Structures
1.
Amino acid sequence: MSENKDSMPKNITELYGTNVFNGKVMKEMLPQEIFASFKKTLLMGSPLSLDMANIIAEAMKNWAIENGAYHFTHWFQPMTGITAEKHTSFIVPDGDHGVLLSFSGKELVKGESDASSFPNGGLRTTFEARGYTAWDATSYAFIKDNVLCIPTMFCSYAGEALDKKTPLIRSLEAIDKQAQRILKLFGHKDVQKIIPTVGAEQEYFLVDKELFLLRPDLLHCGRTLFGAKALKGQDMEDHYYGAIKAKVLDFMQELEEELLKLGVLSKMQHNEVAPAQHELAPLFETANIATDHNQLTMELMQDIADKHGLACLLHEKPFAGINGSGKHNNWSLITDTGHNLLDPGDTPQDNAQFLLFLMAVIKAVDSYQDLLRASVATAANDHRLGGNEAPPAIISIFLGNELTAILEAIENDTPYCGDKKQKLEIGVSTLPHFPRDVTDRNRTSPFAFTNNKFEYRMVGSALSIAHPNWIINTIVAESLESFTEVLEKSTNFTEDLQKLIKDTIKTHKKIIFNGNNYSKEWEEEAQKRGLSINKNAPDALQALIKEDNIAVLEKHHVLSRLESESRYGLLLKTYCKTVRLEALTLLEMIKKNILPDTLRYQKSLAESISLKKSLSLDFSLEETLLLKFTHYSKDMYQLLLLLEEQLITVNTHKNKERAFYYRDSVLSTMEELRAILDPLETWIPRDQWSLPTYEDLLYSVV
Ligand code: ADP
Ligand code: MG
């Protein structure tokens, strides 16, 4: 790929989407009327006839074969958070004569899958193990590794969602419906569809593959379970936007190229704050496609890193003491006529509409803080949130001083003291021009309004963005519906709109915070304001089964009660499994590496002592060291026994108590162990320490 460096810009237009069965290809390959009615189906969600599916399937197969793909798969996103695929060949026997290449509309639209081996939170038992995948025509099919991948949803035969995609798609319908009702009130007749747009900025680490393989904790758990700080951490701040190393540059270029072929445009790639950390910002797309593309991005990052002798770490906190990785989920709403509904307009009417959509988000986030927080709650993200590098585990909204001042003026009927003093009458006066707040560059807010979109920054780097987005879509749909109910009955639209906006500001302004979210004072202030504070996943996940939260998802047909409850169970279980695996890995590393390394070092000290003794030399230093390490080892051993015991005791607990036990007992013993291991590492001679250190890992890529 490196020979392409110079020709890359020329190739962009040629490469873009070459592996995608997109609108352009369909237009070329499908009969005109089929293409037209397919587009209508996409826009209006009307069902697709089998005849039409047959024709599309035939074209898809021909295109796939032309591009070297002889297999197809229904590509889906089970609740494991990664994607799943089962390859089927186009080749079928043709009588006695040989074989045919065939792919029917039925095969395109629906696939059977053994659901029993995917986590489902108890929604299905193994004797009714069949689930099915259903084509999601809103996301284009593509070729990856010579296989035609058809984006699908994954459901049980009773229709329950078993994946991350189904609720997301349901939430798109919910927000479209409610946003349309609002736009009708503002007199828009031309808008047929309103779609959330998402751009997910992805952070990741790259380390040397061989060193990665030598660390069982990175290999099995994705993060280091101990490790003394590297001499040079991120304190020098020279990595951020610094020159990109040659090997990383090669990786980034290949990644960009492969993504381009899949129709994913990366807007920017750069180094992050921490050493070995990088970021990719894609161009935003509709929420559904952005979700698929983010999954593909994560997959490709790992595959391509591997080809370059690197390992891509997507974990939220691979190394203690330096920044973790997140995913900034930029979210907005756009009409099919191209209008961004979170973009303040130029006319009084546009401004009023903008303010109402802004209010919808503020009300939604305030009313369902805990549900939004729960959508990013995992064992891994717990290590990152609140760590002075990422937003705390408290949801609040950043609006910037200017926009906040405008809202205050509206709330209090006072003149806005911006560039010109004026009273704001909604629907009559235009919003004063508010410059983008400079403090926007202060990245401490978990949910920040940035110009014409909101940026949800609590999402973890390894997470699928489906869950946070179906929550945002649903809760904003709920606000919009409540607004419509008031405004549809209104006899004086402008007056009632003004009152609605004022009331919403009054009730929900407690969620707005423009200060430093990392400060201790903010936590106290948030507590006073009554905001919900859930510092860890087991606490945060409880929100998933709170009545109000179940109700809002059920009302908008995004998740049934049963689906919410089963997802809760599943996420708690995943939390437990994650911590368990970490504890087991830590025990193994202590037994296989650390303890033997330490004992070997003690042996060499003991030998040195007896040698010096025989020569009548002073051996007090060796003796002090030997005593010190004897203590370290004994303490380590005691904690190791305790951890082993806890891993047995934990099984006597069930459900949420089990998760709490992992959090309160297992994780805290692991932390106590770490408190011994990290300083110990600094004392053991390099040639006697058998594991790669932070220094090795963070500065391994040149
Ligand atoms: P910022 O400077 O605020 O970080 P950028 O323009 O650099 O904003 O964009 C950051 C990310 O936000 C990119 O991934 C971009 O595609 C995405 N983004 C921009 N506009 C929108 C929008 N209207 N909806 C969703 N995402 C958007
Ligand atoms: Mg950003």
2.
Amino acid sequence: MRTLQPEKLPRHLAIIMDGNGRWAKERMLRRIVGHRKGVETVRTVVEESSRLGIRYLTLFAFSSENWLRPKTEVRALMSLLKRYIKMEISRMMQNNIRFNIIGNRDDLPPDVNREVDAAIARTAGNSGMTLTLALSYGGRQEIIRAAGLLAADLAAGRVAQAAVDEALFDGYLFTAGMPEPDFLIRTSGEMRISNFLLWQLAYAELYFTEVNWPDFSKAELHKALCDFQARERRFGRTSDQLHKGN
Ligand code: IPE
Ligand code: IPE
Ligand code: MG
């Protein structure tokens, strides 16, 4: 493994965990077997990210669009999710991880919501990494929701038109209070965002790997993070400006 510079880690790592189905298909297994194997990768990546000192890890676990999948797969995913959250609480406590979710909670089955609430409550006092699962999450839906909430506050006179800026709008998103992701990883070779964190990814460094999520190892995570550390983040400025500080 290449050596990582601890001072240059992303503050907020976001991951689109993709390729569970293909991983299973390549092995003539059912898709759900790929999802189960994917949960093991989640464990590995969560623990390693926390060990490395990453402050925020956000994982795309189920999109608003994933409700369109066959009912049997949706049901299996929801049950896997529920079991994962329930099983992981003790490990989150051991690792001082704070659990959080973003997305449309109203869509989730009540039993999943119960586990989510329990995990959020149990881990609320933890001060280490914040682990956020994006569940029934869609970036456009999030922006529309935020716009609606803001419009209501404007109409009620709780917010003045002149006060509307990026920071204020940010506070209406599910991710309010979190720094925006500086690094996005997507596995399985697909090069798209698939409606993930559209607002928040504005300046994230993007990393795509052919590796399917169930095969994404600690070594793969390190490789991605090394790649991130070699990037120059210019935010519109020139390279010279960054180096000479002018
Ligand atoms: C990612 O794997 C997991 C979810 C979207 C829930 P996929 O299930 O999308 O796997 P592929 O893309 O079919 O291989
Ligand atoms: C995106 O993966 C959603 C998650 C990883 C949960 P998909 O596999 O559903 O994305 P598309 O539809 O192929 O772009
Ligand atoms: Mg996919």
